[in-house]
Design a protein that fits this description.
- The structure is a homodimer of 374-residue chains.
- Chain A is α/β, with parallel strands linked by helices and 374 residues long.
- The first copy, chain A, has 2 domains: 263 residues, Queuine tRNA-ribosyltransferase-like (TIM Barrel), CATH 3.20.20; 96 residues, no CATH class.
- Chain A has 15 helices and 16 strands.
- In chain A, the strands form 4 sheets. In chain A, strands 4-5-6-10-11-12-13-14 form an 8-stranded parallel β-barrel, surrounded by 4 helices.
- In chain A, strand 1 and strand 2 form a beta hairpin.
C-alpha cells in the first residue's frame, strides 16, 4: 500500500532515494517538469522522457476546468490522455485557485471561485480535490490547502496553516489507499519557524505518504527560504519523501537538496524556454539579445539536447526574433535537459559523498557567467 | 555538373524518379515541406526527416530580410544553420515580394520593395536572387521571376511572362554551375495555353536543370490548373525534373502527379497544423470542433506520427482549445506525415503500374469523409 520510498544514501542532510509508484520508479532528488494542462508545454512526452525526467506534475485546477476531470477519467486517466506512461504527481488546485481564479470565497469547508477561463462558478473542497486527483489517476495526490498569502502576519499565517491542517485531515479520510499510490501532506506556516514546526507535527500525526513544504518561493527570498527549510526538514519523518513545491532556480534546488529535499517542481525551465532564457552551468543566457546573432557556438558545449547538438546561438536568436515555435521548443528542451543534468549531478555527488565539492564547483561556475561570449 | 535526375519508371504521364543533389537523393514524386524562415514551423529537423521528407524548401525573401543571407553564409550556410543535412531548394523571392512586401516598384532589371519586417528598402534582381541563394547554399536554385497577378488579361500575362523569361536568361548567366547544384527555370503565362507554351520554349532554349510551373493555385481553380498542366507538361524536357510550385491540397498533388509533375511544395500541411486542421485519407478534420472532445480514437488509424500513435482526438481537441504549442506540433507532424504517406503511395503505385486504381481508391476514400466520427 502507498508509494514506496527507499533511502539509498546520504551526504550530510542530502539524500539519494528511490520513489516507487504504480507507474514506475523515480530516482531522487528529482525535478518534476510541470505539465499544467496535460502537456509539458512545447514538448512531446517522449522528449520529456529523453531529458531524463521520470515524473511529471499535472495541475488539478487547470484540468478540472478544461477538459474536466471526469472527461479525463472517461478517456482512461491522465497518463493515457497525455501519453505519459511514467509517474504523475498532481497538485491539489489550492495554489492556482489563489493565483488564477477570480472572486474567491474561502469558508471552513473549502473554496468557491470563478473559473479564469469561462467565469463559471466552481468549488474545491479537501474531499473534492482528492476525488478529482483520483479521477485523473495521480500516482501522488496532494492535500488541498489554503495558499497563505505573502507577506502574512504571524496571526494570519497561523490561522491559514491551521485551516490547511484541518483540511489535510479531511483529505486523508477521503483518500482511498491503493498500492503504488500515495497522498502527501503540505507543511504551511509562512516564514514562521514555530508555525512550520506545528504544521509538521500536525501532518506527521495524521501520517502521510510524503511531506511537501508549501508557501515558499513566493517572494521571501532565498535566505529566508533556506532558513525555513533548516527549521522544518528535521521535523519531517526521515523515511518518507520530502517535496519542496514550486522551487525553483537551479541554485535554489541545489541549496534545498543540501537541506534534505527529495522532490521539486517549477515552471521556471519551461516558461523561461518560451521567453528566450536558457539555463546553463555558466548562468543564464537571454537568446533574444543581439550579441548572440553571429555566435556559432551552442548554448552549452556537452549538453545532449537537440538545441545544443544541432544549433548555434545565432540560429536560436534568429528563431526567437522571428517568433518561431521551434525557438520555444528548442529552449524548453534545453532547459529541461539542464535541470535534469543538475539533478543527475546532485544524485551522483551524494552517491560519491562529494556533495560539498560538487556544490562549490556549481556555485563557482554559475558565478563565472558566460565569459567566453562573443 | 548540375543535379542528377534519373527516370525510374512511368505509369501514363506519371513518373518515378531520383533527383540527385550535393546533399543526397530525393525519390520523386516528392513533396517538400516549407521551411520559410529556416525552420519547418513547429518541427525539429529530425522530425521532418522522420516523416520521410528528403528535401525542404527555404525562402529567399524571408532569409534575406532576417537573419540576412550573408549572415547565414558566414554561419556555414542554410543546411548547417537549420541543421537539415539533406537537399534544400530555395525559391527566388519573387512570389513573396509580390505577396508580402510593400511599395513594390518593378523595373526592367528587378524589383525594389519595402521589407514587411522593418520597412527598409530592399532590391532583388535576377542576378542578386541567384547570389543570395548561393550564399544560402541551395542545392536547387530557382530563377527570379515576376509573379503574374491573378486574374490577368492575355496582354498582362504575356508582358509579365516575357519579363520573367528575360530575367531567367540573366539568372542562368549569373548561376555558377557546380556538381550537385542546379538551377530551375519557371514557366509562367497565367491561364493562357499559348503563353505557357511560349514560356516553356523560351526556358528550354536557355536550358535549365529543371523546370518549374509557377503562377498556379492562385485562385484559378483545380480544373483550370489541371488544364494548364495538360497543355504545359508535354512541352517540358522529359529527362529533367518538373516542379509545380506552391501546390497544394492532397487531391491537387495526386492530379498533378498523374500529369507528370515530380516535385511539390506547399505551406498547406504546416499552416493547417497550426490552425487545428488535419488531413487524412478520409478527408479533412477540424480538431477544434466540439464533436471531437470525447473521441478516444486517433486522427488516423495506421498513421505512424506521434499524434496518431500516442493521442486521442479528444486530447488534440483539448490542446487546441487550450492554445497549447503541443497541439500545433502534433498536428503539423501529422499533416507532414500524411503528405509523405501520399507521396509514398503515389511512388509505389507508379512502380506497380497501378496508379489509376490507386487514384480511384484515393478519391473514393477522400469523398467518403469521416463517417465513423462520434
Amino acid at each position: 500500500m502507498t508509494v514506496g520510498f527507499s533511502l539509498l544514501g546520504r551526504d550530510g542532510e542530502a539524500r539519494r532515494g528511490l520513489l516507487e509508484t504504480a507507474h514506475g520508479g523515480v530516482d531522487t532528488p528529482a525535478f518534476m517538469p510541470v505539465g499544467t494542462a496535460g502537456t509539458v508545454k512545447a514538448m512531446l512526452p517522449a522528449s520529456v522522457a529523453a531529458t531524463g525526467a521520470q515524473i511529471v506534475l499535472g495541475n488539478t485546477y487547470h484540468l478540472m476546468l478544461r477538459p474536466g476531470a471526469e472527461r479525463v477519467g472517461r478517456l482512461g486517466g491522465l497518463h493515457r490522455f497525455m501519453n505519459w506512461p511514467g509517474p504523475i504527481l498532481t497538485d491539489s488546485g489550492g495554489f492556482q485557485v489563489m493565483s488564477l481564479s477570480k472572486l474567491r470565497r474561502i469558508d471552513p469547508d473549502g473554496v468557491t471561485f470563478q473559473s479564469h477561463i469561462d467565469g463559471s462558478t466552481q468549488r474545491l473542497t479537501p474531499q473534492s480535490s482528492i476525488e478529482i486527483q483520483h479521477q485523473l489517476g495521480a500516482d501522488v495526490t496532494m492535500s488541498f490547502d489554503e495558499c497563505t498569502p505573502f507577506p502574512a502576519t504571524h496571526a494570519e499565517a497561523a490561522a491559514s496553516m491551521r485551516l490547511s491542517m484541518r483540511w489535510a485531515a479531511r483529505g486523508k479520510t477521503a483518500f482511498a489507499a491503493r498500492a503504488g499510490y500515495g497522498l502527501f501532506g503540505i507543511v504551511q506556516g509562512g516564514v514562521y519557524e514555530d508555525l512550520r514546526l506545528e504544521s509538521a507535527r500536525a501532518l506527521t500525526d495524521i501520517a502521510f505518504d510524503g511531506y511537501a513544504i508549501g508557501g515558499l518561493a513566493v517572494g521571501e527570498g532565498q535566505d529566508v527560504m533556506f532558513h525555513v527549510l533548516d527549521a522544518t526538514v528535521p521535523a519531517l519523518p526521515a523515511d518518507r519523501p520530502r517535496y519542496l513545491m514550486g522551487v525553483g532556480r537551479p541554485a535554489d534546488i541545489v541549496g534545498a537538496v543540501r537541506r534534505g529535499i527529495d522532490l521539486f517542481d517549477c515552471v521556471m525551465p519551461t516558461r523561461a524556454g518560451r521567453t528566450a532564457q536558457a539555463f546553463t552551468w555558466r548562468g543564464e543566457l537571454n537568446l533574444r539579445n543581439a550579441r548572440h546573432r553571429d555566435d556559432p557556438r551552442p548554448i552549452s558545449e556537452g549538453c545532449a539536447c537537440p538545441a545544443c547538438t544541432g544549433h548555434s546561438r545565432a540560429y536560436l536568436h534568429h528563431l526567437i526574433r522571428s517568433d518561431e515555435i521551434l525557438g520555444a521548443m528548442l529552449l524548453t528542451w534545453h532547459n529541461l535537459q539542464f535541470y535534469q543534468d543538475v539533478m543527475r549531478g546532485l544524485r551522483g555527488a551524494i552517491a560519491a559523498q562529494s556533495l560539498a565539492d560538487w556544490c562549490a564547483g556549481f556555485d563557482e561556475q554559475q558565478a563565472m557567467g558566460d565569459i567566453a561570449a562573443v
